[in-house]
Design a protein that fits this description.
Length: 241
């Protein structure tokens, strides 16, 4: 059983705390800060989607769009450009999934700016996303390449390569999830050590620059990498079709 909160020292807090626990089939299950922060991120995305939908419906083609609608249009154009450049004619089929993935990961990564613990700093969040992506890859591989094409791919270049190719396929969700998890967690650990171990006069002003790098810059890069790899893997699974 974990002892919450988890601290390296009396002053270093990694914000991993159990809020309450309940009994599930004889097992004690904890609701932690990760669950709460994930819920907050999801609620923010839902509110943003509702306001964006309302703004689009009320938009008047004879008038200049407002600031919020401009932001929504820029975001959609940006994501559309990324998906179309990688997936081509298949972009429309996967645009909604990639958009949702991008917004959730990015908002989770930068949630440290709002005083939250990034949900993506928990492997229990990133691994399911990797598994979902792996399921999408596998489904499209069998759909477009058929069973014969999948078997042929496993035997490429020789039949003795089947174990290696299988390991490569099953490593996809692990590599995707670990890359995102490790990079976000490292930033969270660095900021926790900075706030917990350094004297107070060193913390004035400097944390803003560190947050810009660890939360905003690194968070945006990791979001882009995860989505780009997802689109590349799915496009490879679809093949020449």
């Amino acid at each position: 059983m974990f002892n919450y909160p988890v601290l390296l020292s009396g002053d270093v807090d990694f914000m991993i705390k159990g809020i309450f626990s309940y009994n599930c089939f004889g097992n004690e299950v904890w609701i932690t800060t990760t669950h709460v922060c994930t819920l907050i991120v999801m609620l923010l995305l839902i509110v943003f989607a509702l306001f964006a939908n309302r703004a689009v419906k009320k938009a008047n083609t004879d008038e200049a769009p407002g600031t919020f609608l401009n932001i929504v249009e820029l975001l959609i154009d940006f994501l559309d450009g990324i998906v179309n450049s990688v997936m081509g004619k298949n972009a429309a089929k996967f645009a909604n999934y990639i958009f949702t993935l991008f917004l959730f990961i990015f908002l989770s990564n930068i949630s440290g700016l709002m005083g939250l613990r990034p949900p993506t700093a928990d492997y229990g969040v990133t691994f399911p996303m990797g598994v979902i992506t792996f399921g999408l890859i596998t489904f499209n591989k069998f759909k477009h390449q058929k069973v014969s094409g999948v078997i042929k791919g496993l035997c490429d270049p020789w039949v003795f390569w089947i174990p290696i190719n299988l390991i490569g396929d099953f490593a996809v969700p692990i590599s995707l999830s670990l890359r995102l998890f490790a990079n976000v967690l490292s930033g969270t650990v660095m900021m926790a050590l900075y706030y917990g171990l350094l004297p107070i006069f060193v913390k004035i002003g400097i944390p803003s620059f560190l947050h810009i790098y660890f939360d905003l810059f690194s968070g945006a890069i990791q979001t882009y990498v995860f989505c780009m790899l997802t689109m590349t893997y799915v496009s490879d699974a679809i093949g020449a079709e």
